[in-house]
Amino acid sequence: MSFLDQIFASLETSGDRALLVGLSDSGGEVIAGHDLLTRIAQARAFLSTKNLKKGDRCALLAPNSIAWVAMDLAIMAEGLIVVPLYSRQAPQELVAMMKDCSPSLIVCGDPALRDGIVQNWPGAPPQTLLEEIFGKRGAEAQEASSSSHADSDPVAIIYTSGTSGEAKGVILTAGNVAHMLDCTSGRLDQLMQSRAGQDNVFHYLPFCFAGSWIMLLTCLLRQSKLTINTDLTKLAEQMRATEPDYFLNVPQLLERMRKGVDEQLWKTGGIPLAIYRRAKSADVRQREGKKSVSDSLWLGLANAIIFPAIRKKMIGSSLKALICGSAPLNVETQLFFMMIGIPVLQVYGLTETTAICTMDVPGSFEPGRVGPAISGIEIRLAENQEILVRGPNIFPGYWNRSEETRNALRDGWFHTGDQGEVSAPGNWKITGRIKNLIILGSGHNIAPEAIEEDIATRLPGAQVVLVGNGRSYLSAIVTGSVTAEQVHIVLEEGNAGSPHYKQVREFRITSEPFTIENGLLTANGKLKRDLIAQRFRSEIEEMYAVKQAV
User: Fold this and answer.
1) What are the domain boundaries of the chain?
2) Which of 280-289, 377-386, 409-418, 436-445 has the lowest mean pLDDT?
3) Which of 55, 139, 290, 514 satisfies CB 3.0 to 4.6 Å to 285 for a cystine?
4) Which pLDDT band, with edges at 50, 70 and 90, does 527 fall under?
5) Closest CA to 337 of 261, 272, 450
6) Cα(370)–Cα(372) distance, integer angstroms
7) Share of the chain above pLDDT 70, in %
8) Do 348 and 430 touch, CB atoms closer than 8 A?
9) Which CATH number fits domain 437-549: 3.40.50.300, 3.30.1640.10, 3.30.300.30, 3.90.950.10?
10) pTM
11) Exposure of 138 by Cβ count < 10 A (0-12 exposed, 13-18 middle, 19+ buried)?
């Protein structure tokens, strides 16, 4: 039985249980399994009129919604390959990806998205809107209850972030997805301790990202209640109102939540701030093995008075854990949430590994690491500490890119391009990205991520990119509302404890932030380093000219 058959069977047996909640200004829409099957049937009936054949690509360009979910499942059920795209990306980038995969049909979430495609691609394939597909009722639910997929059948092409400037289409098969759903569901069973009843899950990350998509499919398989945020400006209030058991996050949100707690308590002042500050210091000393007599008192007071209030105001009272992926999480942020009583479980993976290679085990994880390899997966280190992975989660190749596929898949192992290390208990840590390595003229190899993170942590709201490949020292491009004096102080502090080759000697502050809209961040928020270096070439040359002149 394919993973789609399993999901459809789960929907059929879920009865009137609410499975999807689409939040909106009007209050939202709640649908049960049979309702979703009806919508899948509608979409399949529509697709059957388009003379599409098995293996044809269908681009899905829309923000998260219940209609998105139904369309995604219908496309795969019809034997087509779904190509989910990020609706916030620039039309030119979207068109480049669609030209690469040659879809037979483009499904758009609204007229503005469709118009943006047409303007940038006059000869685009046929387009339709989700509302045109789901505007009519009447298809029978049972039509959606069967699909036929071999493990080797492609079901999706998900485009990578394209940190080098050009995205690649990652082919994922039915077997890849089936294995991953089994792994994720098993880990969630551990988190929920196989509790009877329905998981309550909040979700805000775009479904077009591999990890987010796997979470969606896992929830459908488990008959969880998935509440879909569709307005990021209301994220905090909807998060609290949902009272989730767990939900998927990116580090950026958790960093903001931590900062928000500090700022709110600072404004409150008085006894709550005093207890909070002393409890934080006590927690640090306890972890360092330097616990003092009064530490138990302050931590006890905070656990009785302050921390429960923080948890309830921030996320609600039902949370079992936060799940975090897409990028390494600052260990101090993970420890902060642990201090207030919220475990943060990290996952690591790439689109090419069907989103996940490792997952923290609830109750036995190491802060700062991303857990052990998931079931059935092998991970080892190669030269330059590169992480290699093999197993049933590994993609078969990139769409229409045989050379890139050969480079990535060698001797049965996928070369991730990430550097890492593993602890004695088998928990992995991501230490850098090989392609991001800065090799100074002296021959020193430097992974920039840790240094950038340290500087950015000391400059709240700032973005930092290190440069210096082939040069004699490191320099930094800094964005944000910071002054030269602030940056200078932070660099001096960081340089004091660093070897000479890791010291940042020069910097430039720019008012232009790195964003998805200006093309300097990928769709999931990663730095496009090559494009940043091109955009700020004159500033970079100026930094090195200054030192050389001296």
Assistant:
1) 3-245, 251-317+319-434, 437-549
2) 436-445
3) 290
4) confident
5) 261
6) 7
7) 96
8) yes
9) 3.30.300.30
10) 0.86
11) exposed
